[in-house]
Amino acid sequence: MPIFSAPDGTRLAFHLRGEGEPLVVLPGGPMRASAYLGSLGGLDAHRQLVLLDLRGTGESELPADPATYRCDRLVDDVEALRLRLGLERMDLLAHSAGGSLALLYTARHPERVGRLALVTATPWALGCPATAEDRLAAARSRASEPWFADAFPAFEAWLGARGDFDPVFLPFFYGRWDDTARAHADREEAETNDDAGDLYGADGAYDPDVTREALARVRAPVLVLAGEVDGGPRPVLARRAAEAFPQAEFTVQPGAGHYPWLDDPEWFTRRVAAFFS
């Protein structure tokens, strides 16, 4: 397991999967260890995945200063990884909350990004959060699912701050609620640094106007991939991230939720590999 030092001395880890040209992967959560990404549905057959464990997650050290969990502070860690890999420019793939980190990195270091893929990434860095209404609208589209009747009231109560997080509504985050999805969901708590996640979007993390202005000048090709039944972000919200770039493709994976490489690995891998080819 390779290790490198962040600018503040925190020792960070990354994991390599597959062979070929490196593809740097930023995990979501926020602040979930990169193990949940697996091989991204077999994408490691096309590129060597460089899976970063953000500080305080996975095999990376806890930082001395918890304020460095803030998303904009993590940009320096991504740049340190690029230098460790010896890449003049790197291709990036970011999932979920990692999308905001990728947006901030690209805005600050546009000349260091070759191609960028944002996978089911809520564009917090652009001032576009997923709302409770977004999530409930996506959830209602699953009314024919056998688990819906038990899951929806708990989901609605949680989003309305009238109830606690309840595993009964985890199926809403997956396009297919099967054994693979259940095993994946069961690992989330152990893989996530909740304290770090609470600080990821702390005050000062994002300046949407500045970020939009910077991204409007980016010439790197961008792919924004949304899941058809994902509520955070719904496809209409994900499209707004694509609109921030001069050269962006937008695509919706049919039947996919928040983890599209689990819902249809072949579709996901084919689409993303083609973009990075």
Strand order in the largest sheet: 1-2-4-3-5-6-7-8
Order of helices and strands: EEEEHEHEHHHHHHEHEHH
Radius of gyration: 18 Å
Low-pLDDT stretches are: none
Helix percent reads 25-40%
CATH homologous superfamily?
A: Alpha/Beta hydrolase fold, catalytic domain
Could you tell me the strand content as a percent range?
Answer: 15-25%
Can you identify the CATH class? Alpha Beta
List the topology elements.
Elements: E1 3-5, E2 11-17, E3 22-26, E4 48-53, H1 71-85, E5 90-95, H2 98-108, E6 113-119, H3 132-140, H4 148-159, H5 179-186, H6 188-191, H7 194-200, H8 208-215, E7 222-227, H9 235-242, E8 248-253, H10 260-263, H11 265-276
Parallel strand pairs: 3-4, 3-5, 5-6, 6-7, 7-8
Antiparallel strand pairs: 1-2, 2-4
Walk me through this protein's architecture.
With about 280 residues, this protein is α/β, with parallel strands linked by helices. About 35% of the residues lie in helices and about 15% in strands. The protein has 11 helices and 8 strands. It has helices spanning about 70-85, 100-110, 130-140, 150-160, 180-185, 190, 195-200, 210-215, 235-240, 260-265, 265-275; strands at about 5, 10-15, 20-25, 50-55, 90-95, 115-120, 220-225, 250-255. The longest helix is centred in the N-terminal third of the chain and has 15 residues, at about 70-85. The chain is globular, with a radius of gyration of 18 Å. The two termini are about 25 Å apart.
